[in-house]
Specification:
12 helices
């Protein structure tokens, strides 16, 4: 948990510091390593170029001095005399030989050994060095004298000498064995690489190796340019096409070498006699120190980055300890382990956040106290409202009982009252017949019995209707259809009934009241209207209203006239008022009667 950044902000900050320090260290090490690597390579290239220039300058100076000595002794004697004077004047020459213009070797001398020429050397007219030296100074290696004196280091030199008339009298050949040149090459090899990897060659104008190892001598230098001239190499004015800045070249065997060339300038030499000193180093040797330095810089940078990351992590942990303590304090308050948040001291963001948390906590506690007070008050009010609701419920039950009583009263009026009135009329008639016409008494008794049976049947029907109705089960339309069929069978009247689909589905408590109002209207038509035709229509003009219309062609009456003891119309108005419907009765004597009920309902009630 302490090192998982998903659960700890401190861990996230520490990991961020570590990641940034590591990334910057790696990036800086790679960049610094590349820069240092390039600088070391450039220094190596510059040193190689400068050493090449120095070696070429030394060779040019030494060869020029020998050529001047030869020219100074030319008019003073024969070739043999010139030879003796040169041997006496320049004891540092490894060996010296003189040949006449015909190529016959006149004399040789060596400081370290015999004065006899190499075995088999006598006529040198066919030698390249001899024919070339007749035209001017020549540098290279003379195979004939390779075993005489010191081994050739920078090669041999041959030059013509002239007699008193100015004609070429012969050729003087000598081995260029200079101690300073030897020390220069050794110093160069030690400086560039302690394993002595530097290779020294002398090339002629055609690119042939004239001085160098046996396997390369007299063969063209086959290095192909692999890269462009290196930056920061010493810049010097080119002497000819062979001179170029240091560059990497690829050999036929696939190896890459760094090559630096410098021209050898001999006094009195023609442009066709141009030579170059070439120093070369393998590419892996050139980059050895650079790669080692780059790797060292990488390791140093990574180590410094690790130390920086560690210090940054420690500092981040120290700086976030206050935030961590604040978090623990807030968690303890949330678990009810302590009562107050420990606010850190100071003016920084952590202290401000702690004070804000403490204020929010105090406000919440105050609001909680107020909420408890409000909750107690609400419970008290709920208890009061509960008692009021219970009282209202009791009143509602009482009102329901009263409605049921009114309903029973209406049903008794519609059934028993009519039957009792009919029986009362029959009883009165029987009394009159008993005194005036006893013979018709039996028929009237039978009539009274039928009236009693009819009243009993209507009472039973009313009781059955009070015990249950089919309106809620089938809807207002089908219930009215069945009731109208019974009315037709009982009265024999012509009755038309029409109901649209939406209105026929109406089936809540109000539909039952409308059904009872319809039955009351049909009973009034049966007993009082004397009609021959009745029309009943149930429709829904829109989704929010339903209408019932009953028309008859009976005798009619005056709706405004009061009828004491008759409760039919009063009951209809009470039932309409009970469901919030609008009742309209239009009638006049001998004009029939129209009864309409309009009720506003919710759309979902249909």
């Amino acid at each position: 948990m302490d090192i998982d950044p998903r659960h700890s902000l401190v861990a996230g900050i520490i990991w961020l510091v570590v990641a940034l320090a590591t990334s910057f260290a790696i990036a800086a090490s790679l960049w610094a390593g590349n820069v240092a690597r390039e600088i070391v390579v450039q220094q190596h290239v510059r040193r190689l170029a400068l050493e090449t220039d120095q070696l070429a300058s030394d060779l040019s100076q030494a060869a020029s001095m020998r050529l001047e000595a030869i020219r100074a002794m030319e008019p003073k004697g024969s070739p043999a005399e010139v030879f003796k004077r040169l041997v006496t004047a320049y004891p540092d020459l490894g060996w010296i030989a003189v040949a006449d213009v015909g190529g016959t070797l006149i004399d040789t001398a060596a400081n370290a050994g015999t004065s006899e020429p190499h075995q088999g050397v006598g006529d040198v007219a066919a030698r390249t060095w001899f024919s070339s030296a007749l035209q001017g100074p020549w540098l290279g290696v003379m195979e004939e004298f390779s075993g005489t004196g010191d081994a050739p280091l920078l090669g041999d030199m041959a030059a013509p000498f002239r007699d008193a008339s100015g004609h070429v009298a012969g050729v003087i050949a000598a081995h260029l064995n200079w101690h300073w040149a030897s020390s220069d090459v050794q110093r160069l090899s030690d400086t560039l690489d302690t394993r002595g990897s530097a290779q020294t060659l002398v090339l002629n104008r055609n690119g042939l190796v004239v001085v160098g190892p046996d396997e390369l001598r007299n063969a063209p230098w086959n290095g192909a340019t692999d890269e462009g001239p290196l930056r920061h190499a010493p810049q010097r004015p080119p002497l000819d096409a062979l001179q170029s800045p240091p560059r990497f070249e690829r050999l036929p065997n696939g190896r890459e070498v760094l090559v630096a060339r410098a021209p050898v300038q001999l006094q009195g030499a023609t442009p066709t006699d141009a030579w170059q000193v070439q120093l070369s180093e393998p590419k892996e040797i050139v980059y050895l120190r650079a790669n080692a330095l780059g790797l060292r810089i990488v390791w140093i940078s990574v180590s410094l980055g690790a130390i920086t990351a560690l210090l940054g992590a420690l500092v981040a942990r120290h700086l976030t300890n206050r935030l961590k303590r604040l978090t623990r304090s807030a968690g303890a308050v949330g678990r009810n382990e302590i009562a107050h948040i420990e606010v850190p001291s100071g003016q920084d963001e952590v202290a401000q956040l702690g004070r804000a948390f403490a204020k929010v906590l105090d406000d919440l506690r105050q609001e909680r106290s107020e909420l408890l007070i409000l909750s107690s008050e609400l419970e008290r009010r709920v208890a009061v409202r509960t008692r009021e609701v219970e009282h209202l419920a009791e009143e509602a039950r009482y009102a329901a009982v009263m409605r049921e009583r009114l309903q029973i009263a209406r049903d008794l009026h519609d059934t028993l009252a009519h039957s009792m009135m009919a029986m009362l009329s029959e009883v009165r008639l029987l009394r009159k017949l008993h005194t005036r016409d006893p013979a018709s008494l039996a028929a009237e008794l039978a009539r009274a019995e039928e009236v009693a049976h009819a009243g009993l049947s209507e009472a039973r029907n009313a009781i059955a209707q009070m015990r249950g109705t089919t309106v809620r089960d089938t809807g207002l339309g089908p219930a009215l259809a069945k009731s109208i069929e019974r009315f037709k069978d009982r009265t024999g009247l012509e009755v038309e009934f029409a109901a649209d689909t939406a209105a026929a589905r109406f089936a809540d408590d109000r539909a039952e009241v409308i059904f009872r109002m319809t039955e009351e209207a049909l009973r009034n038509i049966e007993h009082h209207a004397g009609a021959s035709r009745v029309r009943v229509a149930l429709r829904s003009p829109d989704a929010a209203h339903i209408e019932l219309r009953i028309d008859d062609d009976g005798v009619g009456f005056d709706p405004a006239q009061s009828r004491p003891g008759h409760f039919g119309l009063v009951g209809l108005r009470e039932q309409a008022q009970l469901i919030g419907a609008q009742l309209d009765i239009k009638s006049s004597p001998e004009m029939g009667t129209t009864l309409s009920v309009a009720l506003r309902i919710a759309p979902e009630a249909l």
